[in-house]
Design goal:
Two copies of one chain form a homodimer. By secondary structure, the first copy, chain A, is α+β, with helices and mostly antiparallel strands. The first copy, chain A, has three domains: 84 residues, Rossmann fold, CATH 3.40.50; 61 residues, ATP-grasp fold, A domain (Dna Ligase, domain 1), CATH 3.30.1490; 180 residues, ATP-grasp fold, B domain (D-amino Acid Aminotransferase, Chain A, domain 1, 2-Layer Sandwich), CATH 3.30.470.20. Chain A has twelve helices and 17 strands. Chain A is globular, with a radius of gyration of 20 Å. The model of chain A has no long low-confidence stretch (mean pLDDT 95). The interface between A and B is medium-sized, with 32 and 32 residues.
């Protein structure tokens, strides 16, 4: 059986690594001729909207998925009309417009920052009145890794907006001075079975995820599960879903969804009984989902811009290195390190060591 | 970096699945155009002794290994003269002659069944006198999965030997009515670091491995470690080594070595902190070896001849399916199932379930 994947990056690559033991073969559509997943399946090199290539995928693959959201909705629907494709394009449509995403959270009773659609200068002033400073401007269409987000500190900054926040539809919202960022990854299969991974506590730097840590008995678990369940059942969703939350004054406030395997779920490869990648594929194929419990306190640290010294990482007990096979470039995720430990104290020590190694090599911008 | 592998079967495939996250690419030499590892690297289709292909591998790969022993020693030495190749051809030479293997055990003070080289009918009679009935005849050159082994029950059977035991050099040895079969997998890197996996208790059927079970605190561990250490240091060995033992009257009696990743070590993919495949590659690259402790009581069951129902296997909690992508054929290993459980009782229950599923599909001969 062949699974088609729109995108040939590291998520597609890790899907294939998880899927081959299940007996699956893969096909990847990506415009980059050196896409890092290509060594694990049949490459289709071209634009995501190339209908000839999409037809080819539909003819050869028995099911399809996508590894990122910056992809033409039309192309995804085109493919979904031909072969089973998950997650549903309906959630992708919402995900591609931050205004619709905020409204979805509202509609499902999931706390989210207060927001205002902004079309005119008057709307901006109204946002400043309603939210006070600082407040946040976001392009409605997708950014990633913090792109398309702007924090307004004062009245003067209203006059000096970067071009993209003037030229494209934007959303103003409340600035949340969160205590921490938490995400949850869950999976649902066509029969309605849902499994939830333990929450990850995340750290971002310049909008890019730096680190996710999973500790036993995170108090955010039960509320996060409730919120993800609402989204999963609303869409009769199939596959892995990730939701990022701010935790503010002890409450979870939904910030973003990701209808796909997610960077804050990479820890599951070694840290959970079944990885997010395997469960995404199990869901796509209509198979029973695997247990999501964590095996140990676990952390995942991204390698950004460059890779750390391989020997130094592997000298750390129970450290696992994932190299994506991508050319180093500032701001680019080129790998990650997973750390497991018997308890939180040992985990913190290992994190400190790896952060030192990463500090020597990372290039964020 | 490219690693060349002589052989493109499931062991090569699992090596590649473990090696790609370490940033490795693979090249496989195998005569079968549909070798199951080929989807994970560059295929070199041809005979193992094809010097043009070996030259090609030497030119493109930076290090090499082999996934099985039935391979021309000359070819392995040819490649080893050109690029670093491990495990050393010296152990392969010994492994390819059961008489030399028995003598190696003797020389290193590792208990092994009493044996006699057999060249004439008189030698056979002498073996019968020395060992009594039953005793065992083995071809000196390699068999696998129990091929090349013959148990003589009585005097009459001396006259009705199968052709291969008459036409090729053979070895007679003591029949060991063992209590159980135990194997140990260990790895050594060029700096002399050695790591030992917990012993596996194995079950064979018609000479084919059916099942390996790893329980905490197996009493065979310390003695087996001692014996493997002798072999590893004797050869300044690099890579994974497996040794199979009979346990008889509480003693370990070495039966076979395997200078490679081994079927009785497949449980390590999910069951140990670092898999045998990753440690084999770490050793080959001169990297620090990973921790080998087991995560939980673990069992590995081979799928022989056919695959079990995928859904039924995946319904079992913490069951992990490995499909090799090989055409079903009686006696052929086409996949395996790994089971982890919180304790031995739960593990036994899960084993029972999977054995039922396998009973419905297995074809040994």
């Amino acid at each position: 059986m062949i699974v088609g994947v729109l995108g040939g990056g590291q998520l597609a690559r890790m899907l294939a690594l998880a899927g081959m033991p299940l007996g699956l073969d893969f096909q990847f559509l990506d415009p980059a001729p050196d896409a890092c997943a290509f060594s694990l399946g049949r490459p289709l090199i071209g634009d995501y909207g190339d209908t000839a290539l999409l037809e080819k995928m539909a003819a050869e693959a028995q099911a399809a998925t996508y590894e990122f959201e910056n992809i033409s909705l039309q192309a995804v629907r085109f493919l979904a009309q031909r072969i089973p494709l998950h997650p549903t394009p309906d959630i992708l449509e919402i995900k591609q417009d931050r205004l619709l995403e905020r409204r979805l959270f509202q509609e499902l009773g999931i706390p989210t920052p207060d927001f205002l659609a902004v079309q005119t200068a008057r709307d901006l002033e109204r946002a400043a009145e309603q939210f006070g400073f600082p407040f946040v401007l976001k392009t409605r269409s997708l950014g990633y890794d913090g792109k398309g987000v702007w924090v307004l500190q004062d009245k003067d900054s209203l006059k000096n907006l970067p071009e993209r926040f003037v030229s494209s539809p934007v959303l103003a919202e409340q600035f949340i001075p969160f205590e921490r960022e938490v995400s949850m990854v869950a999976a649902r299969n066509p029969e309605g079975q849902i499994v939830y991974y333990p929450p990850a506590e995340n750290t971002h730097k310049q909008g890019i995820l730096i680190q996710s840590v999973v500790r036993p008995n995170d108090p955010a678990a039960s509320t996060a599960e409730l919120y993800l369940q609402r989204i999963l059942t609303h869409f009769r969703y199939v596959g892995v879903l990730a939701v990022e939350f701010f935790q503010f004054q002890g409450r979870l406030i939904a910030n973003e969804t990701a209808p796909r395997v997610h960077n804050t779920g990479h820890w599951t490869i070694e840290g959970a009984l079944t990885s997010q990648f395997e469960n995404h594929l199990r869901a796509l194929l209509g198979l029973p989902l695997g247990i999501t419990a964590s095996l140990a306190p676990t952390a995942m640290l991204n390698c950004i811009g460059n890779l750390p010294d391989r020997r130094a990482v592997l000298e750390i007990p129970d450290a696992h290195l994932h190299i994506y096979g991508k050319k180093p470039r500032p701001g680019r995720k080129v790998g990650h390190v997973t750390l497991r430990a018997e308890d939180e104290r040992h985990l913190s020590e290992k994190i400190r060591k790896v952060r030192q190694l990463l500090a020597d090599c990372s290039a964020l911008v």
